Each structure stands twice: as C-alpha cells, then as structure tokens.
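Predict the 3D structure for this chain.
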Amino acid sequence: MSKRFSFEFKITGILFVVLALVALTGIFAYQRFTGIVTKISENLRPDMRLLTAKALINNINDAEISVKSYRITEDTLYLTDFYESVQMADEKLSELHEMSETEISSERHLRLDELDTLISQKVRGLNELLLLQDGFRTQKALDK
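Done. Predicted structure below.
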C-alpha cells in the first residue's frame, strides 16, 4: 500500500508542477497580449491635428454653402449661419496654431501661415459676394 501512496504522491506532485507551469504560461501570455493591444490602440488613436483640420474644412464649406443659400433665398438666417461658420473656422485655426507650437518644425509653421492666408482670402471673397448681393438688392429696390 505504501507503494501505491508513493505513486499517487508522485502523480499529484507532477500534476501540481504542470498546473503551475500552465498558470505561469497563461500569466505571461496575458501580459504580452495586453501589451500588444495597448500598442495597437496607441497607433490607431486619431491625430487631433487631422481631426481639427477636417473640422476647419467643414466650417469653410458650411460658410460657402450659407453664402450661396443666402444669394438664392435672401433669407438672413443664412447670414447668421455664415458668420457662425467663419467664427468656428477661426477657432479651429487657432487650435491648429496651438497644437503646432509644441513642435519645433518651422515648415509646419509656414504651412499654417499659408493656410491662414488662404482661409482669409476665402472669407474675404465670400464677404465680397455678400456685399454684391446687397448691391443687387439696392438696385432692385431702386428699379421698382
């Protein structure tokens, strides 16, 4: 009987060693897996500069649509939308400037300055379209 207990103890001991190895392997695999998932999620995180630039483009497009809608309908609600869109675009441009201040690259600063100039020209052109529209309304009133 003592041989039987000795054999059972050996088997039980081997099972505990195997169980401990499986547990250690599982813990190591879990740590590696969470590390990989963390690296992937960091790489997939959207760039805030890109999101801000896309919002800026949307605001400029909204401003242009508002001007076109105002010219067609002469509804002053579109003027309000235009000025709000221009204000939001200005805020987004300021956010881009703040984000770029953390970087040392002078090339990016030059590009942002060029973007600022282009947006100013676009808004100035849209304002001129609005002034032309007002001139046409005055002319229509005088004609009547």
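The mean pLDDT is 83.
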